[in-house]
Each structure stands twice: as structure tokens, then as C-alpha cells.
Design goal:
254 residues; Rossmann fold; 6-stranded mixed sheet; 4-stranded antiparallel sheet; 9 helices; globular; binds adenosine-5'-triphosphate
Amino acid sequence: MTLAAQDLAFGYRGHPVGQGVSLAVAAGEVLALLGPNGGGKTTLLKTLLGLLPPQAGSVMLDGRDLAAIPVRERARLVAYVPQSHHGTFAFTAFDVVLMGRTAHGGLFARPGAKDRAVAAAMLERLGIAHLSGRSVTMISGGERQLVLVARALAQEPRFIVLDEPTASLDFGNQGKVMRQIRSLAADGLGVLFTTHDPNQALGHADRVALLRDGGVMAVGPVAEVLSQERLAALYGAPVETVVEPGGRTAFLPG
Ligand SMILES: Nc1ncnc2c1ncn2[C@@H]1O[C@H](COP(=O)(O)OP(=O)(O)OP(=O)(O)O)[C@@H](O)[C@H]1O
């Protein structure tokens, strides 16, 4: 099963952002999307999720055109973790995670015991069960980010798309989310995430796509694609390479 962009052009009405993008994320793998600010990462994700219509080309989910898949079925297959934002409504963390179950119930069905159990299990999995009864307007940005990841997991999707999932997280929670990402792929999910840290792609992704000016500069296995030269070209800035005594490579802004 794959989620794939085929010769995709994407953008907003009257504002094309990218074109000629072909890439795919398969079940069981992690694909990282890297690129400079404004390069089109979020817009591409929204198009892959069906939140924005393609301007040309297509998005295919398991060989079917995404546009032809009913919205509720789509929601059972693909979950989205948007960039963390301030919640406006004072829902509890538990209720927000429970909302991830909507795609599994009937149109007006109330959540059942199974839905509540899945929501509780996902809060537990992310280590935030203690936040269950707290209002999401009164927790930290990082805690809210973890709630959004738990909500996506409660959807029990086949693919999960995360937009800068670690942006507001402290060092410990960054590690926690990245480990979750790996374990989701081990459970058979396809994972696509954006990041501004090439080292996260290096350490946790199987493949990486480099997006610049709305086009794919390179896509492939991390070890083949991520080099000092490519990253310098991607960001238009110097990049340094550090090789640890154990042989592990890391990139630093130069
Ligand atoms: N709602 C919108 N309507 C019109 N143009 C938009 C809208 N949102 C973003 N853009 C523009 O689309 C382009 C791509 O933005 P996008 O948010 O996809 O980039 P990004 O790679 O995710 O950036 P960042 O790393 O800064 O989050 C930018 O030029 C941006 O100004």
C-alpha cells in the first residue's frame, strides 16, 4: 500500500507553489521531507491529504485516486498531525484524542467503550495520560503537540502525515516522538513527516525527499541523498559534517 504523488502540481488559488512532484511513501516506511522555509512542504502535505485539490497530476492511495475516495474512508486511512497551534476551544486532552475516533463511528454515533479505550491507550502510549482531564488551552505547546499525535494514532490510520512534529518539543520529547514514528512504521504504517533538522531524517527516516522552490531536488534512501553538498544546495547555506568517533554522521549549519 502506498500514498503517492504523481507529477503533482500544487498550491493555492492563483498561487502555484510546486510542480512536477512525484514521490511515494509505502506502508512500513518513514519518509522525511526536508526543505527551506516557504519551499512548499506544508502545501504538499495538505495536497497529499486531500485538503487542497491538486492543480495538476494526482494523489494516489493504494492505487486509487484520492479525490475519488469518500472523505470518511480517507480519514480512516490517513491521519494528519498539523503544526501545533493554540487550541481555541477548551476541550480536554482526552476529548481531543477521542475526536480521532470520529471516522470509525456512524455519522452521529456517540463514542463507545472501544473508542474511549483506544483514546486512553494512545494518551498512555505518548506518556501524557496525566493530561487527560486538562483543557488543551491550558497545557504547554509541546504537550499540545503530543495530544495531536495521540489523536492521529487514535484514528488507527494506515498512513500518518506529520508537519514538523517536534517543532515545539523539548529534547526528551523530540526523542519520544521520533521513537514513536519508528515504532509506527514497525507496526506497518506509512509515515511522512517534515522537519528542519536533517539529523532527524538521518536518524529516523528510511528515505528522504528534498523540496526546494516547490520541486523535488532529490528523493531516495537517506544514506544516498543526504550529503553536505546536497544540503548546502538545498538551503543555499554552508553546512558542516561532524563524524562521531563511533562513525555516526551529523550535519551542522556552517
Ligand atoms: N493559505 C495560503 N495562501 C496562499 N499562499 C500560501 C498560503 N499558505 C502558504 N502560502 C505560500 O505558499 C508557499 C509555500 O508555503 P509552505 O507553507 O507550503 O512552505 P513550507 O515549506 O511548509 O515552509 P515552512 O518551512 O516555513 O513551514 C509560500 O510562498 C507561502 O507564502
